[in-house]
Design goal:
Length: 125
């Protein structure tokens, strides 16, 4: 399975948080899965940390790489696709994840119900 982690799922994974459901944990840990983290996610978390709205590690890139997670850069085609999405969800970071998942054939691991308004694969929990 090819996965893409939403920001809250990434933080829960890195912190081994009990909020992570068994199905989510097993999908990410599965040796057959390739689990991606978007540059948009680290960008979002960094902004929230810098503004004081979130407590998160300041070495997220290092943690992602050391956790068998695959960085996913933002490509021009991702940016164009995110901009073309209907405005069902206004969060630009989530819109980028949706576009990346659609283009790259990824399943998003999220609890954000707004993402489900789009034609995108979401991990069933």
């Amino acid at each position: 399975m090819k996965l893409l982690l939403d920001s809250h799922i990434l933080l829960w994974w890195l912190n081994d948080d009990r909020k992570l459901l068994k199905t989510e944990r097993e999908a990410i840990a599965n040796a057959g899965s390739v689990t991606h983290v978007s540059a948009a996610t680290l960008w979002e978390l960094s902004i929230k940390r810098a503004s004081g709205r979130l407590r998160a590690p300041d070495n997220l890139e290092e943690l992602v790489i050391n956790s068998r997670l695959v960085p996913l850069p933002i490509l021009l085609k991702h940016a164009e696709a995110a901009g073309r999405l209907p405005l069902k969800h206004t969060d630009p970071f989530d819109r980028m994840l949706i576009a990346q998942a659609q283009i790259e054939g990824l399943t998003i691991v999220t609890r954000d119900r707004e993402i489900a308004k789009y034609d995108v694969a979401i991990l069933k929990t």
